[in-house]
From TrEMBL:
<dbReference type="Pfam" id="PF07731">
    <property type="entry name" value="Cu-oxidase_2"/>
</dbReference>
<dbReference type="InterPro" id="IPR011707">
    <property type="entry name" value="Cu-oxidase-like_N"/>
</dbReference>
<keyword id="KW-0732">Signal</keyword>
<protein>
    <submittedName>
        <fullName>Multicopper oxidase LPR1 homolog 1-like isoform X2</fullName>
    </submittedName>
</protein>
<dbReference type="Pfam" id="PF00394">
    <property type="entry name" value="Cu-oxidase"/>
</dbReference>
<feature type="signal peptide">
    <location>
        <begin position="1"/>
        <end position="23"/>
    </location>
</feature>
<feature type="domain" description="Plastocyanin-like">
    <location>
        <begin position="439"/>
        <end position="571"/>
    </location>
</feature>
<dbReference type="GO" id="GO:0016491">
    <property type="term" value="F:oxidoreductase activity"/>
</dbReference>
<dbReference type="GO" id="GO:0016036">
    <property type="term" value="P:cellular response to phosphate starvation"/>
</dbReference>
<dbReference type="InterPro" id="IPR011706">
    <property type="entry name" value="Cu-oxidase_C"/>
</dbReference>
<dbReference type="GO" id="GO:0005507">
    <property type="term" value="F:copper ion binding"/>
</dbReference>
<feature type="domain" description="Plastocyanin-like">
    <location>
        <begin position="147"/>
        <end position="222"/>
    </location>
</feature>
<dbReference type="InterPro" id="IPR001117">
    <property type="entry name" value="Cu-oxidase_2nd"/>
</dbReference>
<keyword id="KW-0479">Metal-binding</keyword>
<keyword id="KW-0186">Copper</keyword>
<dbReference type="GO" id="GO:0005789">
    <property type="term" value="C:endoplasmic reticulum membrane"/>
</dbReference>
<feature type="domain" description="Plastocyanin-like">
    <location>
        <begin position="276"/>
        <end position="353"/>
    </location>
</feature>
Length: 578
């Protein structure tokens, strides 16, 4: 696809699927759902301690002043122990070396406005460890190997450092994709302090490489803001919880289907991946011993398709202080948190408010969300907190202030919007009702670019979801926020018109977007990088194409340069097909 600069940034749909190598991994023998469930059921919950994710600092300190740092992080084939009673699992993992590669990979901790430079290196083998589907467009290295490219999710990065899906490279940079330009990526860290994560983003590989283990956190701190807010701080009381689901074969290997839902069309592809075991920081159903005091948890859902609706047993609640990479203006007390794939929540839990000795983090989100299967005895549990008796070992001086962080208000920006765009999600089905592909605005990834916003402007994006599932909508570079969610009436008639004309205005969207309004949850009223798109609804987004913090600032790089940026659904992106 021609991704040349137009009048502004280049946005397009991502097309992604499965890994391709010189020698295709032989298909695994058929495995039944019953067998996978039995393997997961054999793993006793809460026997492995929650790991502390390794950390790399994206800055150095010289004479007490933070300075930019250079990191080198590789992608390795290694083994990982997901559970005490499960054999070791072959994975792909990020690490500063093969010896310390981990799942998740190391947290990169950066300082706001201090750049971090990362050289990404590919040490992956010639063949993939998981199945792939040859009928689906993908990165195709001529001489084998597993292509990779890294995207900092939620990052404000130059286009050459954003992890464009066609900027892939194989081991030792032997082959590179058509938009690859450099080995070292620049992360300016100019955005507000918050929680990001990095992951593989290769066209044709994204889902399978994430399932293999290429995920990791990235935290941007503002030291003065940390001091003012006085939230729980330090490696013990401020923890990342990276949650995802996996299924395992009896030999400990990762399970991924080798037969598709429509094998005559796509022999291997299936529309979603749902694992039987819930993993937190690389361990299945771990436990964490906590004191009776406040803790901060930066929760990130890195599952392929599973939504989580999280809650705590024994009358404990969350105080949510942030969503994705931004703080909320004010803390929100809530009993439950709903996270779509790739979405994050920043919360404080006060374990002194219960007399109980434990609390289980639970999940009750149907899958697919919101109208799918009910959770079972496995995927309804996430992890356990074991609450130590007595007073904390040191006095807890942290607190949750009534006011957190003020950003420009989204609803106030609508009047100054330069453009309104209609973005429609379509799903294509066989006569039997099984999915074959999903497009945005009826277009393929390789079709000409249609969204060309200008730097420094505000736009309104009306996202219309004509599918049956909720979709986590992600835009690279831009900050956006939902301000209105309205149900569509006569959905069948509108869908029929859109299928023929693919034009929301010609199909009279204003007469169909007249159903009940749904409030944007208070926990999501901030600048986000993922917004959940409810099925059968039109969600109005205010999108800002500049740095959003205390004031509007231009990007510290040229955002119109090649290869541009993309937007997509964060699980259906993994299978947008021709």
């Amino acid at each position: 696809m021609n991704m040349g600069p137009l009048s502004g940034w280049v946005f397009s749909m991502i097309l992604a699927s499965w890994a391709l190598t010189e020698a295709r991994t032989p298909p695994s023998p058929p495995v039944t759902d019953t067998t996978l469930f039995q393997v997961a059921s054999s793993l006793r919950m809460y026997v492995d301690e929650l790991p502390l994710i390794p950390k790399l600092f994206g800055y150095t300190v010289v004479n007490g002043v933070p300075q930019p740092a250079n990191l080198t992080i590789g992608m390795y084939k290694t083994t990982w122990k997901f559970h005490r009673d499960l054999p070791v699992t072959t994975v792909f993992a990020y690490g500063a070396s093969a010896a310390n590669a981990s799942v998740p990979g190391p947290t990169i901790e950066a300082i706001q406005n201090i750049p971090t430079y990362v050289t990404w290196e590919n040490f992956l083998p010639q063949s993939h460890i998981l199945p792939w589907d040859p009928t689906i467009p993908m990165a195709i290295p001529k001489n084998g190997g597993v292509p990779t490219v890294v995207h900092l999710h939620g990052g404000i990065s130059p286009p050459q450092s954003d992890g464009h899906p066609l900027a892939w490279f194989t081991a030792n940079f032997a082959e590179t994709g058509p938009t690859w330009t450099q080995r070292t990526y620049t992360y300016p860290n100019t955005q507000h302090a918050g929680n990001l994560w990095y992951h593989d983003h290769t066209v044709g590989l994204t889902r399978v490489n994430l399932l293999a283990g290429l995920i990791a956190p990235y935290i941007i701190r503002n030291v003065s803001l940390d001091a003012r807010l006085n939230l729980p701080l330090g490696p013990v009381f401020d923890r990342v919880l990276m949650i995802f689901d996996r299924s395992f074969n009896s030999d400990g290997s990762l399970y991924m289907n080798s037969t598709g839902v429509n094998p005559t069309i796509h022999p291997q592809w299936q529309p979603e991946y749902f694992g039987d075991a819930v993993i937190v920081n690389g361990k299945a159903w771990p436990y964490l011993r906590v004191e009776r005091r406040r803790y901060r948890f930066r929760i990130i859902n890195t599952s392929n398709a599973r939504f989580f609706r999280l809650s705590l047993t024994n009358n404990l609640a969350f105080t949510q202080i942030g969503s994705d990479g931004s703080y909320l203006p004010n803390p929100v007390a809530t009993q439950a948190i709903v996270l779509g794939p790739a979405e994050g929540a920043d919360v404080v839990v006060d374990f002194s408010t219960t007399a109980a000795s434990e609390s289980v983090l639970t999940n009750d989100a149907p899958y697919p969300y919101p109208g799918g299967n009910a959770v079972d005895q496995l995927n309804s549990k996430v992890m356990k907190f074991i609450i130590q008796p007595g007073a904390p070992s040191q006095t807890d001086h942290s607190h949750v202030p009534p006011n957190l962080k003020t950003y420009p208000i989204a609803s106030n920006a609508i009047g100054g919007a330069n453009t309104t765009r209609y973005i429609t999600l379509y799903e294509y089905l066989t006569p039997a009702g099984t999915s074959t592909h999903l497009y945005i605005n009826g277009l393929r990834f390789e079709d000409p670019v249609t969204e060309t916003p200008r730097a420094g402007t505000t736009e309104v994006w009306e996202v219309i979801n004509l599918t049956s599932d909720n979709h986590p909508f992600h835009m690279h570079l831009a900050a956006f926020q939902a301000v209105k969610i309205q149900q569509l009436v006569d959905l069948a008639g509108f869908t029929s018109c859109m299928t023929r004309l693919n034009d929301a205005i010609l199909c009279n969207i204003t007469s169909h977007a007249t159903g009940p309004l749904v409030d944007v949850p208070p926990t999501e009223r901030t600048w986000k990088n993922v917004v959940k798109m409810a099925p059968g609804y039109k969600t109005t987004l205010v999108v800002q194409f500049f740095v959003v913090d205390n004031a509007h600032s231009p990007y510290p790089f040229d955002p119109t340069a090649e290869p541009g940026y993309v937007y997509h659904c964060h699980f259906r992106v993994l299978y947008y097909f021709v």
